[in-house]
Amino acid sequence: MGRVLKWVLGVLVGLVALVVVGVALFPWDRAAGWAAERASQVTGRQVGIQGLHVDWSWHPVVTLRGITVANAPWGSEPLMADIEQVRAVVSLSDLLRGRLALPELVVTRPKVLLEKSQEGTGNWRFEGAAADEAGQAAAPEDRGEFPLIGRIAIEEGLLTYKDQAKQANVTSRIATVAGDGGDDALQLTGEGNLAGKPLKVEVTAGPLLALRESEEPYPIDIKVRAGGTRAEIGGTFEDPVQLQGPNLGLMLEGPNLAEIFPLFGIPTPITDKYALEGHIRREGELWAVRDLKGRVGQSDLSGWVTLEPRDVRPLIKAELKSQKLRLQDLGGLIGMTADSAQKQNEPAGADGQLVPDTPVALDRLKAADMEVGFTGGDVQVPVLPLKDVAFHLSLKDGVARMDPLKMTAEVGRIAGSAVLDGSKETPVGRFDIGIQGVGLKPFFAGTRFEDETEGTIGGRVKLAGSGKSLSGILGAADGEIVMVMEGGKVSHLLVEAAGVDIAEALGDLIGGDEPVGVRCLVADLDVKDGLLKTKTLVFDTTDTNIAGNITSHLGKETLDGRIEAYPKDPSPLAARMPVTFGGTWANPKLGVEAENAAAKGAAAVALGVLLTPLAAIIPFLETGGGEDSPCRSLIQQAEDKPKQEQKPAKGRKG
Predict the structure, then answer these.
(1) Using only C-alpha atoms, what is the Rg of the chain?
(2) What is the mean pLDDT of the chain?
(3) Which of 192, 492, 500, 648 is 20 to 30 A distant from 354 in Cα terms?
(4) pTM for the full model?
């Protein structure tokens, strides 16, 4: 038996000796070529390894030199990765027990390019025959399968991220420092630029040993600064390897909410400065921000947001509400620039436009699909204060629909829909807004005209056009605008609404500066290729009918018009003159014609001409005074006039 044992032991020793000699004499440069060829087959990309060397001991040191990985065929650069050297210390004792342990891992001068194509495909998606299988096999399923790493160092790293669709280009220099005792935190810092602005990233996480060994939640803290935007995410993951069980706090602040688009890919509107906070959770495949609250400008905002990652465009859902909202704080919803949102209440310059001419950001419309609901309480809109606003915004395949859109003023409602189609090169806008019983008094709250103001407005705005901006869309729009008002006052009311001093001109028109009661106002306007023209514009006052014609280009915001008084009783109006106006919406120019208007003809003649056709007007009278309304009486008077003129005079034969 002893001879047998000695023989077996001798054989084993001989085998070990042969292995040691073989390993020592193995040509490792050939092994580098074999490994590179195998990696190329697995990934479907050309992989290169210039050199491979092993320093053998109980803790072998494996060194790889000149590692390159080709980029995707559509990529902006030939290489996806170019790494000068990777040096890894391997624990043989752990390896013999079936687990990978690396007491030290050092990566020297790695240059890595991550980018997405215009279609949203990432260059990290490999298409080799065994790429999926290899990726699934290499990816740890849980914390227990994660490699045991004592110390990791990245020396002089360079990471570039590009997204063609979002026009994002981020270049970061990366260096890491972690302790070798297993208790020190992992730190990563990066600097670069994002959308032309400086970017700084700081990541502090738990020790790498805790990724595998600890059952405790894994701590992580991320701080990002991009221009004036600051984002902080801090908390823990139950399973950091699979990114499951996050319990993270979010803090986000900056000068303009639209600036987070390059960071998170969420197409947010242009806003005033903001500060928001919430809690990040993961719910299945969804990432959610719950308990979202904070301020945007002087407006409060709360609710929740979820994001579902998808191959082409993520799906974002949100429910938001505000107790007190200023329109200028969310000016980007109607195309304002950051400057125009901040200066909304300032008077326009000589060449200023009231409607934003900011180009529609097609890249943002196509960056994500969205379903967003919003409700607002006290909504502060210049000239038109609102008590409630509610809308549902749907964004899919570059087409944004705001339907329904509901707003409530003092005693009336504004409701309808708006569509912005950005699926093609030139955006298309369609607007259909109805106005029902909106009182005029809130327009002049706090002014000396508040007690003198009366009347309600009903009507409809229906326009459709195409253009690069909201101003361009209106400048090419076709449609109609119909407005009807019953019971109101003119003179000082119009002075305040126009924002210019035309009291003297209106005094010439209506005889003095005292408010004059309006029984009915009818405005029926046609829009063709952005040019608005009057079909009907009539004020019916207690003693005068005031008729007018208006021409205005909605894109250029030019004005050209004339208002003229037709007396019901000629004697009080002998000296009244027509008023003309021109200029622009922001800077209207008014004048007075020297010609006497009273000689032009009687009021009934004017009504017969101006109040036809009536089909577009009559439906809006239903929200006014009913059958006995002043407007209905006015229209009936105009309809009866032609009938009376058709009757033959008594005593004459046909």
Answers:
(1) 37
(2) 76
(3) 492
(4) 0.74
